[in-house]
Amino acid sequence: ARAKPMEDERTIKAQHVAPGTWYYKLPMNAENNDWLRLRASAKEMVYGLEDDDPNMNNVPLRTSRGKAGGLNFAENYLSIYADKPENVYGDDRDGAPCLFAICDARHQFQTDFFHTTIPYFFYEDMELNPYVGFTQCPQFFHEMQDKLDYLDNNNAQFFRLNCMIRNCCGGVSSCGTNGTWMIRHPDGDLVWEQEKRRVRDTETKRKSKEYVERRTFHESCKVEDTASSLQQVLRGRRSQFINRRLSFGMAKNPVDYLAAVQRWAEGGVVLSMQTFFSAHKGVYMLWVTFLFFICFMISLFRLVNKTDTEWVAVRWGLVDQSFFDSIMNPFVQWLRSFAMIAESEYFRHHPKLLEDYVTMLAQFVTWVISLVLILVIIFLFTELLKLVQRVFGCKLPFVWPDEMRWWGRLLISMDNL
After folding, report:
1. Interval 58-95: pLDDT, tens
2. Is 132 helix (H, G, I), strand (E, B) or coil?
3. Global pTM?
């Protein structure tokens, strides 16, 4: 599927054009219809005969791309095939997005797979929903019944519990197979794109840009499904979980399945490092979500360990002490006189513990009120962005969540990482 050339096994794989790797020449004015013809003229770069033509771009044939590389090659081929004159409708359908379903070799779609899947990309009035990025059906291996599925080949906990909960905010991650993606390429979009090389130039000592073939699915880690799902979240799109067994598969043997579990664990670590230490578009939203989570944990730790009711804002000088006393003193007095506390038989026998209990209760109530206020502020700001962007049609120069479900998807993505 990747049109892999004959390679020397002694050559160490590289992601860029280098001696020992295969590449093809890309003219400055190349079009999509030239892609297969140019690719057919690929050759190997020979040591000592490096080919640097200022009027041509060298495009590498990346052969260490894994499953995602095969998906991208097929998607590029199908998109170009659909744009041929004999395949053009001549109406609005030519500009519509396409659906790209993934079925692994060990799986088989049922006859009603697309009849069930396609409606999830539309509103109830049959208008296309541009915010749905992909749908996901559960994997199912008939020979692995629950009572015999000791290694959880069916991923029962993930599909029957986690996915049902995450689907409330559209945060279900793709599992590769049984997923259907909505892909939309801009008009005039070429099958090539520019990216910064991973190694520095020997002369300029800088990372120059080079042309590579277009990548819809993430290729640089072992969990391309999770990585591609993360890309959709950062773009503001959501997923739809279809809780039906629309595809049946053949389970891996235990050794291969344990190897797959190890691959998922390793890929998750790599993806986490690639995400948090990169400058890709939208990654700052994950950092903001992560910082919110850290602040939440710090507030919990402080709630458990503090022994007074003083606000942090008072300690930092943001709130006047007299204003703090005018609020907290009546509140503490009200808690102390509360019927369930004042008339408690336990505190009558242990009057010294009453102050400790009132302090703990005041701390907890203050923490809950503060958390609610912060969530209300986030909600109001998010809804304001939703009004500006989705109602008035004003686009911001940066990407930011404009619905609370988007924040939920970011929390799920942070948990995945």
Report:
1. 888 876 677 888 899 899 999 999 888 898 888 888 88
2. strand
3. 0.85
